[in-house]
């Protein structure tokens, strides 16, 4: 019964958050059960472009390490802030949200080549947190009951805590940098004199993922209008 209630709650989570969180958990479970090896998942440009192991472009964002405190810490932030973005500033804009993932993933992959970063899920988490924090500047955040501060400080607190866990801050800095690029191009530059939106979601994504918009010029047929039917 408890599992049914949990499953029901999970199915009520927005689609992108639900899909990404489930993919991360299932990938980690497969590694724990030795169905997969981290060596099959990490980003390696030679294997991607020479051996055509293109799945590494995706799996490098899905593995957060073995089960442990660091894994659950990352999953907590992924689920919470991905959901808050999807239900907040991206509400009704699933295609735009997916495009943010694609833009961030591509930029992280290119920049990750310079730093020889093999797993980028933590960077994606930092990007999600950064974008949410910049769009919610007035929100006060309670960080595990230890500190309370304004939302824009959250990515830096997350980076500091990650460092205490023994993780490289380079990954967090990459996510913050990519998050800032997205925020600037999407929220800042279009509002500048002479600015415009440079990140345009492809039409096919909108067609696939967004509900069709109602035509404001549409006039229903008489039989479709409310009230008694006029003969």
TrEMBL record:
Biological process terms from the Gene Ontology for this record are:
ERAD pathway
Q: Where is the signal peptide?
A: none
Q: Which GO terms describe its cellular component?
A: endoplasmic reticulum membrane
Q: Which UniProt keyword terms apply here?
A: Endoplasmic reticulum, Membrane, Transmembrane, Transmembrane helix
Q: Which residues cross the membrane?
A: 20-42, 54-77, 97-120, 164-185
Membrane topology note = Multi-pass membrane protein
Location comes to:
Endoplasmic reticulum membrane
Which Pfam families has this protein been placed in?
Answer: DER1
Taxonomically, the superkingdom here is Eukaryota
Q: Record's InterPro entries?
A: DER1, Rhomboid-like_sf
Family recorded in the similarity comment: Belongs to the derlin family.
PANTHER family, per this entry? DER1-LIKE PROTEIN, DERLIN
What does this gene product do?
A: Functional component of endoplasmic reticulum-associated degradation (ERAD) for misfolded lumenal proteins. May act by forming a channel that allows the retrotranslocation of misfolded proteins into the cytosol where they are ubiquitinated and degraded by the proteasome.
* Designated name of the protein: Derlin
| Organism (species) | Odocoileus virginianus
